[in-house]
């Protein structure tokens, strides 16, 4: 009897299903399963196909060179920075001639390359 009923619900699916088709089939299966958990057959093929597509996407994203997705910082651009700790005398020009005694709580507009080290050392924060 189970074989007869099972054959009524068995659906032959083409090999070239699109992701949209799988999404719709999965959506339908979830809706049907909510109300008839102990009657319907588990959609093993569908779940495995969707899982394979997800695994492929994860693998593909891991192979993507993330350096292409993250732009390089423009070190010569001015930033607004707040000192979290006293930093002592810091050069505020590219030649390193002009020095400023930077103290906790001070706020500056300055080229990022001049305070990059302070930000990386958690002595300053960009605001």
UniProtKB/TrEMBL annotation:
Gene3D superfamilies according to UniProt: 1.20.58.1030, 3.40.5.60
Ranges for domain DNA replication complex GINS protein SLD5 C-terminal: 73-127
InterPro entries the record matches: GINS_bundle-like_dom_sf, GINS_Sld5, SLD5_C
Top-rank taxon, per record: Eukaryota
Cellular compartments per GO CC: GINS complex
GO BP: any one term: double-strand break repair via break-induced replication
Pfam families: SLD5_C
UniProt xrefs under SUPFAM superfamilies: GINS helical bundle-like, PriA/YqbF domain
PANTHER family tied to this protein: DNA REPLICATION COMPLEX GINS PROTEIN SLD5, SLD5 PROTEIN
Protein name: DNA replication complex GINS protein SLD5 C-terminal domain-containing protein
Top-level taxonomy: Eukaryota, Viridiplantae, Chlorophyta, core chlorophytes, Chlorophyceae
